[in-house]
Amino acid sequence: MKLNDPIGARVIEHITNRSCDAPAVLSNLSTSPQPSLSGNSELQKFSRNSGILLTPLKQLGISGWSPTGCTGQGEGILVQDAAHSSDGVFTIDVQILRFGIDGLEGPPSRFIRVEVEKGVAANSYVEKNPLRKGDKILFGGPVVFDNDPFRFLEVHPIDLLVRSDQVPQQFANALSLPAPVFPRSYTVVEGDCLAYIAERAYGRQTWYKVYRANRRKIGYPDIIFTGQVLTIPK
Q: pTM score, two decimals?
């Protein structure tokens, strides 16, 4: 890859050299989809056409993308047709059915943008298999923050991007998120509460399970502090 796409290789190397804080990253999943790029308004046309200038700057780390050091994978439903910008990048906004990092699954009913850069296998797949609103896809890759114009999470697939209905069940199972390991430690981030932590761990807001396992650290169940290390029980 360093020979065929030196900029892309530099980006991936930069991403993998950073440490991943999965709980903090997953807490930033969007609660609503990003604005569509596939319309015909002047702003949407500008967003598509400006990619030929902005994407190389983002790849070089000058502006736009901030690596998290994490790699995530999951499944989601397209909320609008995939948009194709002037620089050859596909932008795909999905509502998450499931999404995880390092065995930790994010909260349900969130959204993430899947940005498919030029020159990778996933980009070739989308060129040959146009993705439309309502399609269900499996996807995975490095997770970054897009800072322009507002900070939100993106996944940049390299080769893991495919319609769910095109994957034989045995392979779909292999691509499923690994089962989380319990008990495990969790570091509280800003905006957390026990119900939210439990929802991410178990899929339900069974906050009392987390509270019971940490009664020596927590005086009242509605008061926890950023940086506190809690035990997440089975």
A: 0.63
pLDDT tens for 61-82 read: 545 788 888 999 999 999 999 9
60 and 127 in a single domain? The answer is yes
Q: How many domains does the chain have?
A: 2
Range of the domain at 188: 184-232
Note whether residue 118 is domain-resident.
Answer: yes
Give the domain CATH number at 211. 3.10.350.10
Q: Is the same domain home to 157 and 216?
A: no
Q: Is the Cβ–Cβ distance between 184 and 232 less than 8 Å?
A: yes
Query: In which band, very low, low, confident or very high, does the pLDDT at 48 lie, cut at 50, 70 and 90?
Result: very low
Give per-residue pLDDT as tens, 81-123: 999 887 789 999 999 988 988 878 887 789 999 999 988 999 9
- DSSP-assigned letters across all residues of the chain: -TTT-HHHHHHHHHHHTS---HHHHHTT-BSSPPPPSSS-SHHHHHHHHTHHHHHHHHHTTSSSEEEEEEEEEEEEEESSPPEE-TTS-EEEEEEEEEEEETTEEPPSS-EEEEEE-TTSHHHHHHHHS---TT-EEEEEEEEEEE-SSS-EEEE--SS-EEEGGGS-HHHHHHTSPPPPPSSEEEE--TT--HHHHHHHHHSS--HHHHHHHTTTT-SSTT---TT-EEEE--
